[in-house]
Amino acid sequence: MSSNKDMQIEEKVEALLSQMTLEEKIGQMSQIRHFEESADAHIKEKFIGSVIHTQGTLPGKTALDWQKRFIQLQKEALSTRLGIPLLFAVDAVHGQNTYEGATIFPHNIALGATQNENLVEEIAKITAIESQATGFNWVFSPCIAIPYNEKWGRVYEAFSESTEITEKLTRASVRGHQGDLSDSKTVMATAKHFVGDGATDFGVEGGNTSLSTYEIKERLLSPYKVAVKEKVGAVMASFNSISGISMHNHKALLTDTLKVGMNFDGILVSDWKAYSRFNGNDVINAGVDVVMAVDGDLEDFQDGLAKGIKDGSVNMSRIDDAVRRILRQKFRLGLFENPFPNEELIAKIGNSSHRKIAKQAVRESLVLLKNKDKLLPLSKEMKKIVVVGEHANSSGLQSGGWTIDWQGKDDNYKGATNILEGLKKQTKGEIVYDKNATGKHYDADVAIIVVGEKPYAEFFGDIGHESNDLELTLTKEHQNYIKAYKEKGIKTVVILISGRPLVVTDQIDQSDAFVAAWLMGSEGDGLAEVLFGDYNFSGKLPHSWPKSIEDYKQKYGPNFWDNSVKPLFEIGYGLKY
Ligand code: BGC
User: Fold this and answer.
1) What's 301's DSSP letter?
2) 271 CA from centroid of ligand 1 (Å)
3) What is the pTM for the complete model shown?
């Protein structure tokens, strides 16, 4: 963006800000859900600045219905005294994953395995188009955490444990999402969660990190510098604490480091209900500009902040800083001229050119960990192949959390191709499906056994959390799928579907070929194209791979920078044909 254009925007921001009442300013700082009771009235009467869609009631059935609902809300905002348009935000973290029928890409950990920045940029561009097509101009993505412990339930939302890989893919992702921001096919991106989300002790979501200031600076902050340099429109504060100080109250990091030190001039958005969770106005004083004032928080936030101004515990200059940032991004997005979504984009949702890129991402993300006696690539002439495991026959299971639903789905979803369907497209021989390895198919030439984790998101995926029975290894049942075929002397190709490296040392030993396939999203047929040799493997491990559960007894996992634990495979490992 030219500096001339920037200056004009700054002038417009100041002109508008000077006309605003305190109520209107606090309104701009408020974010609500589109289906909450009185959402329409609140937009008009409480001057709401942005709307979020995540888990919960859908805005409608079809993409057109979604657009219509958001157009209706936008009209409410435009009818207010100053007519400031709304931002519409969505958790589109691997494609527009909240809309059934959208192209759903592999999760970031898989993109970390591709190390392909052009591909990541392309994926972000498509995500922007499909998000705009469903009515959004803001996405809460990319997650640029550096996971230090694989027990964390959000490892898959991040690209890699490597700061360097994360930097490279962050740059591509922000570029792809935002373009020059004023184009109606692009969206504002959000780098999240600032900072230390993936580096809490023992991998607890929202826990405390005891890393030193030096380590935070060296390993965790530099992807944010990259994002800010790419003019990322927003940064989201994190649920975790650093040395006991909650990030939502951490003025030194939020304001001094991010806003002042890095020159970040965009919006600092809170995470879910942070105002009530982290001491009200301390959140604002630390530097947060937009508050997710959802699920009953709106009144407390708006009244509480007004009170803070009145009693002097919050300065007016802090409010003005927040509103300037919000208006600046709205001008940069061109929302004052172009507040409504474009109906023509709807035809692009889930189209074949988008799915083609998603399939490429699946192929490039697969990491071959073992290939004994060159079992792979498989011949398309094989007479009989048995496919095992419920993960083989479910696009939901192959996609992980944040797929259609917040916690993901166990069954198939619209527009997706599952692994089994993909395999059937590739071979001339017979394919039989033996979901639970019950036997009967010991005459097969090869068994493709698909095992792994069930979908999860956020703290539901933390290992050791009381909400689940997750372990850092496969369930007994899945271990037995592999054993059953191994004991009958059938050659086995094991495909691991997981949001993180798991301890599978014994299963790798038992199998002839072993592939880490991550969470691949809607295009499950990408896998078959590599297994049958139409394409070679090119994925490289984005994390070092643990050899035993013991490796996780410490605060952090066997990361490549910590030499005290030797991994089974180093980061960067991956075989080829
Ligand atoms: C998550 C964020 C997400 C937000 C809005 C939070 O619980 O931590 O990553 O963007 O919800 O859905």
Assistant:
1) H
2) 6
3) 0.98
Residues with CB under 6 A from ligand 1: 54, 91, 140, 192, 271-272, 458
Contacts 24+ apart (CB under 8 A), 177-183: 177/124, 177/125, 177/127, 177/128, 177/139, 177/141, 177/142, 178/128, 178/230, 178/231, 178/232, 178/233, 179/125, 179/128, 180/1, 181/1, 181/231, 181/233, 181/332, 181/333, 181/334, 182/332, 182/333, 182/334
- Protein residue with least CA distance to atom 8, ligand 1: 271
What 3-state class would DSSP assign to 53? strand
pLDDT in tens, 81-91: 999 999 999 99
Q: For residue 96, what are the CA distances in angstroms to 139, 186, 355?
A: 9, 13, 13
How far apart, in whole angstroms, are the C-alpha atoms of residue 343 and residue 60? 15
| Region(s) of the chain under CATH 3.20.20.300 | 3-18+25-347
Edge-to-edge strands of the sheet including 513-516?
A: 367-371, 513-516, 491-497, 446-452, 384-388, 430-434
Please determine, looking at this structure, whether the domain spanning 366-552 carries the CATH number 3.40.50.1700. Answer: yes
* Cα–ligand 1 centroid distance for 72 (angstroms): 25
272 CA from centroid of ligand 1 (Å): 6
In the Cβ-directed half-sphere of 320, how many Cα atoms lie within 13 Å? 11
Cis peptide before 93 (omega within 30 of 0): no
Would you tell me how many other CB atoms lie within 10 Å of the CB of residue 350?
A: 24
Q: How confident is the model over 260-305, as pLDDT tens digits?
A: 999 999 999 999 999 999 999 999 999 999 999 999 999 999 999 9
394, 398, 390: which is closest to 412 by C-alpha? 394
Q: Where in the chain are all domains bearing CATH 3.40.50.1700?
A: 366-552
Can 458 be counted among the known catalytic residues?
yes
Give the right CATH number for 3-18+25-347 from 3.20.20.300, 2.60.40.1220, 3.20.20.70, 3.40.1010.10.
3.20.20.300
